[in-house]
Amino acid sequence: MDRDKILLTPGPLTTTLRTKLAMLRDWGSWDSDFNDVTARVRRSLLRIIHGEDTHVVVPLQGSGTFSVEAAVATLVPRDGHVLVLDNGAYCKRAAKLTTLMGRTCTVMGFDEASQVSPAALADKLAADKTITHVVLIHCETGAGVWNPLQEVADVCAQHGKGLIVDAMSSFAALPIDARETRFDALIAASGKCLEGVPGMGFVFIRKAVLDACAGRSQSLAMDLHDQYVYMEKTGQWRFTPPTHVVVALAEAIAQFEAEGGQPARLARYTQNYQTLIHGMSRLGFIPFLDPAIQAPIIVTFNAPGDARYDFKTFYASARQRGFILYPGKLTQVETFRVGCIGAIGPNEMEQAVAAVALALEDMGIASGEPAI
Ligand SMILES: *Cc1c(COP(=O)(O)O)cnc(C)c1O
Questions:
Q1: Which of 41, 206, 343, 363 has the fewest other C-beta atoms within 10 Å?
Q2: End-to-end CA distance of the chain
Q3: Whose alpha carbon is nearest atom 3 of ligand 1?
């Protein structure tokens, strides 16, 4: 049937018709109409974190990782030393890009089923004075862990270290308040919890560190300071902007504001999460994480223990019923993931659970209960 499948993934996400329709026009990148949209989007983004007084926001073309890479390149001096708090796949990606850009990088490993530890961070910063910046992934999308942003930010502030936060899968859903939480940079993107389409990221940079960032980036296209200065001067993007993505994001933000902003979005995703968890537990599935550290963004489930289980078959079966699941990203155990984000509500989550039940039936599996 000619209906889009529901994306239960960490992005791209299911978007509203209104957001999709916003893309049916052509815009000139020099034109004042388009520059007005860019300016409006930037103002709205700053309001979401209450950062008008303390931060600027710099958009960048590309997927979310482009903006993480740009933030590290722009913020960290070439002789800087980055400590990555690692409890999952996106942390490892941040460490890899930091190393590739020639910055000294130390990885502090934690279990992928637990939060990173602010106390261990404090000990590390006391022991190694050469560290200049800390990288934290707010919601580790690999397993779905909600990391303790406020506590990590407090430790970094006490030690005078710069904090770079990848808030890609949490921004606009989990609370982030720049008036209370001190960070030098925070990164998110158009195609995640704002429910726009993918194609641009944006980085909040603390005004107090902005000037010092000039000339640090070894990349022309990824230099956020340069992008910022040019945008402030001309109202334009330095290089061809993703015009359709920007106007879709403006439309998505209007709907986000009408829904009630971040608290309303968190409430809807929490409802989605609870509907999913209850439905899946009826089928015997067990979530991988302790609910105390689970963000209502994406849920990792242990794979069924039944020998007839096969992810490819499971995926194809759910897909045929209109739902796109996501593979697991853990190294030790077999899992799969189900996203709770996007322009969907509890009805879609109920239907997703029904599709999963039928997929089990297709494979001849009586219960989602894992082996152990
Ligand atoms: C989605 C995501 C990214 C960016 O991934 P892209 O594929 O580059 O868009 C980065 N970090 C986290 C935590 C994410 O969830």
A1: 363
A2: 40
A3: 64
Phi first, then psi, for residue 327 (nearest 5°) are -65, 160
Residue (of 191, 248, 203, 253) closest to 48 by Cα position: 253
All CATH 3.90.1150.10 domain ranges in the chain, comma separated: 6-10+261-362
Ligand 1, residues 137, 166, 298: which to mutate, most atoms within 8 A of Cβ? 166
Ligand 1 centre from 147 Cα, in Å?
A: 15
**Dist CA 351 CA 186 (whole Å):** 35
Q: How close is the Cα of 150 to the center of ligand 1, in Å? A: 21
Q: How far is the CA of 141 from the centre of ligand 1 (A)?
A: 8
Fold entry, domain 6-10+261-362: Aspartate Aminotransferase, domain 1 (3.90.1150)
Residue-by-residue pLDDT tens, the chain, 372 positions = 678 999 999 999 999 999 999 999 999 998 999 999 999 999 999 999 999 999 999 999 999 999 999 999 999 999 999 999 999 999 999 999 999 999 999 999 999 999 999 999 999 999 999 999 999 999 999 999 999 999 999 999 999 999 999 999 999 999 999 999 999 999 999 999 999 999 999 999 999 999 999 999 999 999 999 999 999 999 999 999 999 999 999 999 999 999 999 999 999 999 999 999 999 999 999 999 999 999 999 999 999 999 999 999 999 999 999 999 999 988 778 999 999 999 999 999 999 999 999 999 999 999 999 997
Q: How far is Cα 295 from Cα 12, in angstroms, rounded to an integer?
A: 18
- 18-258: CATH topology: Aspartate Aminotransferase; domain 2 (3.40.640)
* Region(s) of the chain under CATH 3.40.640.10: 18-258
Indicate yes or no: pTM above 0.90. Answer: yes
> Does the annotation place 47 within a ligand binding site?
no
Residue 260 phi, psi dihedral angles, 5° rounding: 120, 15
Residue owning the nearest CA to atom 4 of ligand 1: 64
Contacts of 91 (CB under 8 A, 6+ apart): 84, 85, 107, 135, 137, 140, 142
Pocket of ligand 1 (CB under 6 A): 10-11, 63-65, 68, 90, 137, 141, 166, 168-169, 189
